[in-house]
């Protein structure tokens, strides 16, 4: 036993160093779909409208990969690309064995979802999405369809072993909109990666027409798990399906949505990301922001560090950077879903909560320029991003302060000519401006804190 532990210790240590590259190299990125189909269900439309008011959410990635602090799931996928790295002196099979064995080490004794919810509320976030199952197939919920879950490892004797349930409930208590992340591909399921064959890439490792029974078993298993989550885990707003190389049609998503939208989950927003069409109710550009404003519902998912899951010594983005992303995304009509990885012990790192607290403080003073706003035709000039109240008459200008720069004495833009008074949202102070020949020049009061500034004014007819 001791030898095994020592060996495990070495391997885990090696994993820590070998995957540092995961922080530097950007992983596989799902692109935004190019067209959008408005849902026909009025309840879905209503929920989408409500969701578009929230603007700022968190996406947790938590699973086996959090134990050594490596790239989420992908290291067991045998694709020869830079961003998937493994320890070089293990064969692929040895490596997979080691990875699957991480289930015996995930024991988050400090797991406190109420604390997570406090931190994210303090950050000004309004919705939350949690990884119930990532591509590696390890379930962070007590699924009745597999033993490969956190409820069967060392945490299995803990009353909080049905981890996802506790996460969802903690955020429901704080009135967050709730999203369920679920990966359609499952690399642990024998009906997706069948042990009879090698596993050369992310797809199922056999021909569907030669093994229709395997495929059918996989479809049923996946359907059942989605149904289990949507039936037994309380109310959800969003079902966020990842792994676009398997489609919703592959796993009977239409049938599931029809069932749950008429029973447990009226108005459920389906995000069959990158698949397009009726079950992709909003688009999800990843680690990027669309070039221009978009009229349909969308969300940029962007990591706070460089990785989705927890990795040691992560280089976190600054609060001003997060605010800039939020300003740009809001001005273009989207929501920001910020990726945060809880530690293997079940905590949120202080480096994360400290940064998010600063973002939250800014939002307390300036949130009117973000929440519940809608897009306005002239939405950007340089570092200035514009949003509008739903009536379209009150306009907000947000000066997104670039990292390492000081606030200028004056802010200028073209278009969006104000009439009457202009105020800074923080402190409600009136500011001086001139508006001439289509150009606006605002003089900021002296001695302001070096942080992004939000201004409110009425548009001149
Ligand atoms: C990508 C990655 C996946 C990650 C997701 C989050 O699709 O493949 O690992 O969970 O992005 O947006």
Automatic annotation (TrEMBL):
<keyword id="KW-0378">Hydrolase</keyword>
<dbReference type="GO" id="GO:0005764">
    <property type="term" value="C:lysosome"/>
</dbReference>
<feature type="domain" description="Glycoside hydrolase family 29 N-terminal">
    <location>
        <begin position="29"/>
        <end position="368"/>
    </location>
</feature>
<dbReference type="InterPro" id="IPR017853">
    <property type="entry name" value="GH"/>
</dbReference>
<dbReference type="GO" id="GO:0004560">
    <property type="term" value="F:alpha-L-fucosidase activity"/>
</dbReference>
<protein>
    <recommendedName>
        <fullName>alpha-L-fucosidase</fullName>
        <ecNumber>3.2.1.51</ecNumber>
    </recommendedName>
</protein>
<keyword id="KW-0326">Glycosidase</keyword>
<comment type="function">
    <text>Alpha-L-fucosidase is responsible for hydrolyzing the alpha-1,6-linked fucose joined to the reducing-end N-acetylglucosamine of the carbohydrate moieties of glycoproteins.</text>
</comment>
<feature type="signal peptide">
    <location>
        <begin position="1"/>
        <end position="22"/>
    </location>
</feature>
<keyword id="KW-0732">Signal</keyword>
<dbReference type="GO" id="GO:0016139">
    <property type="term" value="P:glycoside catabolic process"/>
</dbReference>
<dbReference type="InterPro" id="IPR000933">
    <property type="entry name" value="Glyco_hydro_29"/>
</dbReference>
<feature type="site" description="May be important for catalysis">
    <location>
        <position position="301"/>
    </location>
</feature>
<comment type="similarity">
    <text>Belongs to the glycosyl hydrolase 29 family.</text>
</comment>
<dbReference type="Pfam" id="PF01120">
    <property type="entry name" value="Alpha_L_fucos"/>
</dbReference>
<dbReference type="InterPro" id="IPR057739">
    <property type="entry name" value="Glyco_hydro_29_N"/>
</dbReference>
<dbReference type="GO" id="GO:0006004">
    <property type="term" value="P:fucose metabolic process"/>
</dbReference>
<dbReference type="InterPro" id="IPR016286">
    <property type="entry name" value="FUC_metazoa-typ"/>
</dbReference>
């Amino acid at each position: 036993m001791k030898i095994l532990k020592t060996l495990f210790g070495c391997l885990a240590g090696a994993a820590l160093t070998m995957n540092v590259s995961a922080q530097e190299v950007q992983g596989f990125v799902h692109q935004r779909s190019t067209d959008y189909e408005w849902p026909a269900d009025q309840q879905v439309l209503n929920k989408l409208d409500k969701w578009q008011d929230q603007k700022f959410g968190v996406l947790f990635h938590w699973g086996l990969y959090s134990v050594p602090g490596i790239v989420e799931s992908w290291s067991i996928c045998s694709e020869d690309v830079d961003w998937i790295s493994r320890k070089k002196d293990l064969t692929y099979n040895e490596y997979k064995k080691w990875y699957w064995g991480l289930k015996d080490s995930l024991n988050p004794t400090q797991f406190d979802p109420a604390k997570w919810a406090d931190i994210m509320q303090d950050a000004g976030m309004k919705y939350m999405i949690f990884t119930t199952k990532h591509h590696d197939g390890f379930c962070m919920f007590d699924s009745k369809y597999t033993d490969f879950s956190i409820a069967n490892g060392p945490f299995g004797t803990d009353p909080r072993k049905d981890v996802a349930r506790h996460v969802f409930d903690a955020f429901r208590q704080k009135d967050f909109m709730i999203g369920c992340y679920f990966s359609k591909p499952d690399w642990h399921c024998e009906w997706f990666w069948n042990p009879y064959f090698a596993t050369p890439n992310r797809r199922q490792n056999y021909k569907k027409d030669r093994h229709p029974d395997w495929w059918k078993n996989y479809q049923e298993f996946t359907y059942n798990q989605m149904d289990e989550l949507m039936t037994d885990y309380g109310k959800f707003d969003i079902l966020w399906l990842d792994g676009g190389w398997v489609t919703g049609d592959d796993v009977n998503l239409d049938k599931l949505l029809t069932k749950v939208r008429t029973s447990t989950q009226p108005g459920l927003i389906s995000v069959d990301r990158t698949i397009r069409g009726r079950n992709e109710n909003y688009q999800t550009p990843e680690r990027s922001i669309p070039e221009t404003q978009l009229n349909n519902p969308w969300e940029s998912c962007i990591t706070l560090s460089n990785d989705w899951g927890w990795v040691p010594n992560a280089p976190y983005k600054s609060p001003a950077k997060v605010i800039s992303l939020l300003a740009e995304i809001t001005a273009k009509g989207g929501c920001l879903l910020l990726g945060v990885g809880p530690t293997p012990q079940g905590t949120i790192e202080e480096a994360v909560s400290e940064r998010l607290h600063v973002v939250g403080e800014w939002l307390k003073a300036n949130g009117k320029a973000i929440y519940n706003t809608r897009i306005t035709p002239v939405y950007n000039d340089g570092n200035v991003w514009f949003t509008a109240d739903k009536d379209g008459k009150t306009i907000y200008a947000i000066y997104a302060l670039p990292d390492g720069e000081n606030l200028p004495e004056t802010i200028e833009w073209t278009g969006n000519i104000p009439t009457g008074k202009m105020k800074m949202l923080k402190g409600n102070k009136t500011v001086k401006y001139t508006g001439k020949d289509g150009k606006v020049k605002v003089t900021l009061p002296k001695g302001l804190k070096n942080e992004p500034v939000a201004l409110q004014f009425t548009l001149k007819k």
